[in-house]
């Protein structure tokens, strides 16, 4: 089966802008630095990592909101890496994005009817039964009251706004959706509602998701496979159950052990791997394995050779000394 | 830091060079013969020709420009024989209208403008910042309402109205501030007379600026008071005056440096309205008069001077800001 | 055990044009030395307002405070609600210190770390500048900042988020306060850094025997560090008990809903999450009865009282374990067992 999305050695570098005093262009932020993966039809790939690991940039580059610096992107087998922004429009009906912040990603001057109808308008599509009817069906589908068609975003709570964003993104029944931290701005009880909604929509429409989040428990709940990113690179990519039950990469292990679990007895008994220090600058990542500065298993080799993603069971791991 | 200043100074020099070229070029396109402007209505052709040679207008444009440019550094000689004279460095040209070296004219006008601008700056900073802080601290009180009224009046009354009203009511009708017939007096010669001479111009000029600065200060202080680091300052158990002075004002007022520096630079180019109303022989009036009289060397020199002041004040403001805000300094 | 803090029937109200916002609607809690008491709740539950009012850091002009907040110091108890501004100021930093959610914006960008720490120290201890600097370096070292001698001269923007939160902790503890209020101390941080900060807080608590009042929305963090828990909803405490009570024997339907809403890293499988339907009520027009009634799946099973019209009271159902619910205790025990965290069986 052709994967919906295939990414080969994708890189995205941002040149550093000069600041007020120093004028030298100091180099590049290597936000995404050579990642490769595939997403099958109907599959959800979770992408986790700490802030600055490049997961959001990766998501935006894959649907070409950013021009990639290098590598290749295939959508349904077609190479879209070099497709111009104008020509990308025909692909936009098949790939969509849901943003993190339900407060700033909706135009405050537009009614939600207009916001949700925007994809129809842009693609010049008149759905059966008219735009209004289609929008109201969508609103009902995502759990909004269709009578609120003419209201403005500020009249809705955070969870409801995220539903508006979701309605907009599924309007054209896309085959692939990048969900960029769709629930991290929401309270837990509302978060669960949205996760369930995304789950249901996927079952109903069979779309694929790239689900980007920093919350490992949310990702575990919703993903079929999970990719762990660190400093622009994929450290480990594996089926969800394998990754959470038997992490192979030291970083994955540390990350999992750092997540507090809502269970006091587990918290009292479990061993926690504490990483020391902070994330190195993505402008000047460490040589060899990018994780070597914080890794308790690092040897000389890790500081020189960059490990490649190698297969261990069902997992792919970029480590010289996997667990 | 030093290399940064050096680089900025170099940029400044380039900008000024470009400004001087631009102004020089504009004059070349004017439909006047500069030599014909050197004498009155009854100019005879031979006088014009003589003046043309004396002032160097017979030379090609680029050479004239070169002479002007080198004149700034080494001075400039005009004419030949017994009619020869020199404008010593830094020479900004020779005004054939006023028969004087432009540099000397500027030397007379600059102190007036400088006194006007500095006095007004001090006045509006005190009033504007003071009133702004009071309005912010006693938000929604009568003080705040009063400041709002002041801001409204200050920003809507044009300078010439304020100036004339002050002149009419304080000097002409009630004679609170006596009329001055002596002209400009330096602060070093007679401080009392100096203050009386400049009091009304200062108030006039500072009035609208105070209003703008009050409004800015008020909103900056209110906004900063809501910052997380101000809450941290309270949580430390600091006294409210320390929280205000050390924490709130430092952050709220730092951007004022930029505002004040650029406003001040603008005034040094000449506060034309104020100088005209109060008949002050400053740079503003001088350039206005020069434009009216087609006194091209003076126009060229004052334009260049104003540009130089703005460029230099920009640098000063940036450096000051770097001193105030460590994020700029280290980055 | 030394009692450090007593909050009795605290009400915090913000008058607005649309009506009074009842941010905190009668909460009572206690804090002893050496223990961590958590206040858990979602946005708008009143947890942050409660924590800010202990130090009088809310907008005092625009807020009405009723009830009692007794801070027990060596010199006796002070009631924050009724004391003078000067008395309140003297409590801050010395008896009660606070760390905040966003370490990026909680330090003054224009002053060096040393300056800000020394200021906090000297306002209480009146030490000389030299002694204060020495103390700053000591504190930075204590909270695990490498090269404290050098870093004390640096500015906040030169520190990472985790390091800034360490600086905030150093600043809070510089005068050995007996109470530390931590308002979402790790919410803005990444998980690996969060683990470092929580571990640090636990170590420092053991060393100085502080009482920590932890405000958070994260039930994982609570399970990791808290001894006792208060679950807040719409300005009220709906359940109170030990961590084990709350996680293994929840008695309030809201707590059960919260526990079942969180996906767990230690797989419950990938079934549907049992989300709480609807949204919290507006704090301006709270319902007459139970604030949670409209979202509660048990409301229909209640006998003898009406959730829509009778507000339930916080009742001690088991020793030290309180809940606010009309449903029969036996029914709630059965329901609670279904929603309890899995580790309780092990």
From TrEMBL, chain B:
The keyword Methyltransferase does not apply. GO terms for cellular component: plasma membrane. Its main location: membrane. Keywords: Cell membrane, Membrane, Transmembrane, Transmembrane helix, Transport. It is a multi-pass membrane protein. Residues 110-321 form the ABC transmembrane type-1 domain. It is found in: Cell membrane. InterPro entries: BPD_transp_1_N, MetI-like, MetI-like_sf. SUPFAM superfamilies: MetI-like (SSF161098). PROSITE patterns: ABC_TM1 (PS50928). The keyword Glycosyltransferase does not apply. The chain crosses the membrane at residues 9-27, 114-136, 148-172, 192-213, 251-278, 298-324. Pfam families: BPD_transp_1, BPD_transp_1_N. GO terms for biological process: transmembrane transport. This is Unannotated protein. It comes from freshwater metagenome.
From TrEMBL, chain C:
GO terms for cellular component: plasma membrane. It is a peripheral membrane protein. The keyword ATP-binding applies. InterPro entries: AAA+_ATPase, ABC_Ni/Peptide_Import, ABC_transporter-like_ATP-bd, ABC_transporter-like_CS, Oligopep_ABC_C, P-loop_NTPase. GO terms for molecular function: ATP binding; ATP hydrolysis activity. The keyword Magnesium does not apply. SMART domains: AAA. One of its GO terms (biological process) is peptide transport. It holds the Pfam family oligo_HPY. Its main location: membrane. It is found in: Cell membrane. SUPFAM superfamilies: P-loop containing nucleoside triphosphate hydrolases (SSF52540). Keywords: ATP-binding, Cell membrane, Membrane, Nucleotide-binding, Transport. Residues 5-259 form the ABC transporter domain. NCBIfam families: oligo_HPY. This is Unannotated protein. It comes from freshwater metagenome. The lineage of its organism: unclassified sequences, metagenomes, ecological metagenomes.
């Amino acid at each position: 089966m052709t994967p919906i999305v295939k990414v080969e050695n994708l890189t995205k570098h941002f040149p550093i802008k000069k600041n007020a005093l120093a004028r030298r262009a100091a180099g590049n932020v290597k936000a995404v630095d050579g990642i490769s993966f595939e997403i099958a039809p109907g599959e959800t790939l979770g992408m986790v990592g700490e802030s600055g690991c490049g997961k959001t940039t990766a998501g935006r580059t894959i649907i070409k909101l950013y021009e990639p610096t290098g590598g290749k992107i295939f959508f349904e087998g077609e190479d879209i890496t070099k497709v111009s922004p104008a020509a990308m429009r025909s692909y936009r009906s098949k790939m969509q994005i849901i943003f993190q912040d339900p407060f700033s990603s909706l135009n405050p001057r537009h009614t939600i009817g207009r916001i949700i109808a925007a994809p129809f308008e842009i693609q010049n599509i008149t759905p059966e039964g008219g735009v209004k009817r289609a929008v109201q069906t969508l609103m009902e589908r995502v759990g909004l009251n269709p009578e609120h068609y003419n209201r403005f975003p500020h009249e809705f709570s955070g969870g409801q706004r995220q539903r508006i964003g979701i309605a907009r993104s599924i309007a054209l029944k896309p085959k692939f959706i990048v969900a960029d931290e769709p629930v991290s701005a929401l309270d837990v009880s509302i978060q669960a509602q949205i996760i369930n909604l995304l789950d249901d929509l996927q079952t109903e429409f069979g779309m694929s998701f790239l689900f980007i989040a920093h919350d490992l428990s949310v990702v575990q709940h919703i993903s079929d496979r999970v990719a762990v990113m660190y400093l622009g690179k994929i450290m480990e990519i594996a089926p969800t159950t394998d990754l959470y039950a038997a992490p192979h990469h030291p970083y994955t292990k540390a990350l999992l052990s750092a997540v507090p679990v809502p269970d006091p007895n587990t918290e009292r008994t479990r061993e926690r791997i504490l990483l020391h220090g902070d994330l190195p600058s993505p402008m000047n990542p460490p040589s060899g394995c990018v994780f070597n500065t914080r890794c308790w298993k690092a040897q000389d080799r890790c500081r020189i050779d960059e490990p490649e993603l190698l297969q261990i069971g069902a997992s792919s791991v970029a480590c010289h000394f996997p667990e | 830091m030093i290399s940064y200043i050096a680089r900025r100074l170099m940029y400044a020099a380039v900008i000024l060079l470009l400004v001087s070229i631009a102004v020089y070029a504009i004059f070349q396109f004017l439909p006047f013969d500069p030599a014909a402007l050197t004498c009155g209505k009854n100019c005879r052709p031979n006088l014009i020709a003589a003046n043309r040679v004396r002032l160097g207008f017979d030379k090609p444009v680029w050479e004239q420009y070169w002479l002007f440019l080198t004149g700034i550094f080494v001075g400039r000689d005009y004419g030949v024989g017994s009619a020869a004279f020199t404008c010593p460095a830094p020479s900004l040209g020779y005004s054939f209208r006023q028969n004087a070296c432009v540099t000397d004219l500027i030397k007379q006008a600059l102190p007036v403008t400088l006194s006007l601008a500095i006095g007004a700056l001090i006045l509006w900073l005190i009033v504007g910042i003071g009133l702004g802080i009071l309005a912010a601290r006693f938000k929604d009180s009568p003080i705040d309402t009063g400041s709002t009224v002041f801001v409204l009046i200050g920003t809507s009354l044009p300078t010439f109205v304020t100036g004339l009203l002050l002149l009419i009511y304080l000097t002409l009708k009630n004679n609170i501030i006596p009329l001055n017939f002596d002209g400009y007096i330096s602060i070093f010669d007679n401080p009392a007379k100096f203050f009386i001479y400049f009091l009304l111009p200062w108030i006039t000029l500072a009035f609208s600026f105070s209003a703008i600065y009050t409004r800015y200060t008020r909103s900056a202080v209110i906004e900063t008071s809501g910052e997380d680091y101000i809450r941290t300052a309270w949580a430390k158990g600091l006294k409210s005056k320390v929280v205000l002075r050390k924490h709130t004002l430092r952050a709220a007022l730092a951007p004022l440096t930029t505002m004040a520096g650029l406003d001040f630079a603008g005034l040094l180019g000449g506060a034309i309205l104020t100088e005209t109303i109060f008949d002050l022989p400053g740079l503003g009036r001088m350039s206005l008069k020069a434009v009216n009289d087609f006194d091209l060397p003076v126009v060229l020199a004052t334009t260049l001077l104003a540009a130089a002041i703005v460029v230099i004040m920009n640098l000063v403001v940036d450096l000051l800001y770097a001193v105030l805000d460590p994020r700029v300094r280290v980055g | 055990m030394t009692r450090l803090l007593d909050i009795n029937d605290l009400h915090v109200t913000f008058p607005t044009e649309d009506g009074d916002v009842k941010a905190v609607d009668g909460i009572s809690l206690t804090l002893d030395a050496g223990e961590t008491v958590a206040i858990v709740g979602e946005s708008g539950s009143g947890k942050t307002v409660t924590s800010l009012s202990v130090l009088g850091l809310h907008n005092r002009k625009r807020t009405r405070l009723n009830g009692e907040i007794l801070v027990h110091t060596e010199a006796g108890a002070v009631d924050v609600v009724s004391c003078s501004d000067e008395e309140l100021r003297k409590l801050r930093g010395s008896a009660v210190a606070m760390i905040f959610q966003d370490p990026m914006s909680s330090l003054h960008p224009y002053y060096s770390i040393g300056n800000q720490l020394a200021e906090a120290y000297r306002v209480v201890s009146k030490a000389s500048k030299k002694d204060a600097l020495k103390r700053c370096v000591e504190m930075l070292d204590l909270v695990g900042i490498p090269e404290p001698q050098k870093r004390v001269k640096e500015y906040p923007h030169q520190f990472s988020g985790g390091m800034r939160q360490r600086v905030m902790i150093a600043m809070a503890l510089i005068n050995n306060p007996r109470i530390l209020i931590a308002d979402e101390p790790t919410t803005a941080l990444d998980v690996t850094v969060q683990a470092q900060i929580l571990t640090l807080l636990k170590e420092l608590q053991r060393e100085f025997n502080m009482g920590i009042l932890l405000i958070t929305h994260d039930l994982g963090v609570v399970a990791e560090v808290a001894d006792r828990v208060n679950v807040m909803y719409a300005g009220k405490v709906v359940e109170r008990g030990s961590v084990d009570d709350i996680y293994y024997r929840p008695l309030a339907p809201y707590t059960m809903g919260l526990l079942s809403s969180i996906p767990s890293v230690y797989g419950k499988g990938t079934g549907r999450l049992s989300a709480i339907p609807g949204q919290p009520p507006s704090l301006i027009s709270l319902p007459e009865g139970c604030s949670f009634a409209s979202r509660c799946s048990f409301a229909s099973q209640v006998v003898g009282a009406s959730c829509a019209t009778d507000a339930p009271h916080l009742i001690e159902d088991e020793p030290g374990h309180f809940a606010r619910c009309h449903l029969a205790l036996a029914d709630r025990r059965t329901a609670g067992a279904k929603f309890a965290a899995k580790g309780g069986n092990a």
